[in-house]
Predict the structure of MFS transporter.
Amino acid sequence: MFRQPKAVWAVAFACVISFMGIGFVDPILPAIGEQMHASHAQVELLFTSYLLVTAVAMLGTGWVSSRIGGKRTLILGLILIVVFAALAGFSPTIGAMVGFRAGWGLGNALFIATSLAVIVGSATGGVRGAIAIYEAAMGVGIAVGPLLGGLLGSIGWEWPFFGVSVLMLIGLVGTSVFVTNAPTTTHKLSLSAPLKALRHKGLLMLSLVALLYNWAFFTVLAYAPLQMGMSSAVLLGLVFFGWGILVAIFAVFVAPRLERRFGLVPVLVAAFAFLTVDMAVAAIWADIPAVLIVTVIVSGVCSGLNNTLVTQAVMEVAPVERPVASASYSFVRFLGGGLAPFVAGIVGTALSVHVPFWIAVGALLIAIVLLLASRKLITAGVAAAEAADEEVLPIAAGDSPAEPVLLLHDEPTDQGVATGTIRTQ
């Protein structure tokens, strides 16, 4: 896993910084609301504008990268993040900051969708090894981001934004130096490709599961900090540092072991059930900061498992090129992430601080039902991918020649294994 081309580590480092950027904002949410005289709903727009723009822009990432290549797409995304993160730090009003976060989201979409394709296409060790590297980068970024954001936020709310801009500039330099440019596919993708890909039942079901999970995930990440009653950005950063450590450990080390022993769907169902109970506890005692802090930290266990296993399942089950699968999946899941904070801010103010967490509980219960309803399809798709020994990956960003792609049909055979054909790109 660790013997990888320099290009993989350069992109992985930029991924760490990108995911740090999500957690950077958490410790300063109360300070932004107080100093800019913004309501909870207005503060939550910092996440909503960022994630909704990310979601919609995902539909065009494959179109862009298939024409200008993976490296140029990464660089374009990184430039946008560097510029808009810095501008967010200079925001005179909450409205301006929301707008700059939207621009940041555009860069984030170009970077995230392409970085996963680049790592999968360039890494040695197959799909699971590549995803492990990606999830490790996510885990480190999510863990360190809130702590560093809290430390910088203790100086002033502007500094976490400046910190992201500087660190992403370093990632930009590394990507420019070590990553070679190549098309993410051997043919140009249409703008409609990600939406058309959702006609495949396996990809659609997993994407909907991810949407519902992201609703709960961003309720924890974006709404919970406003209810903890912490005036110290450092202390709030430490809470999410503990959460992020659990995300990293369970994503990189625990999830693969559990999946090998018990199977993908049973582990996902158990993780979703555990997170449902955790969110129910948060919903009941949402007005008690100590309980909320514990439930947020504990939720990192489920987030680590789900982040790795759902992404792995999408990459193995989706019967389309990986850049298309990544764009389709990310488009749907970030819709949930984008809407959840804004809805939480509104209903939490209008009704009760308990309601956003109960909505998260409902979303997770629906996700469990979808997982159980599609378990045979998901299991069959993963089994077919493993049977084909899918070490051969569609070219994403490396220098390798065109490689075979496993195409999985939506319905399993009577023997419970999806049929497939091999074609060369």
Q: What stands out?
A: Confidence is low (pLDDT under 50) at residues 389-425.
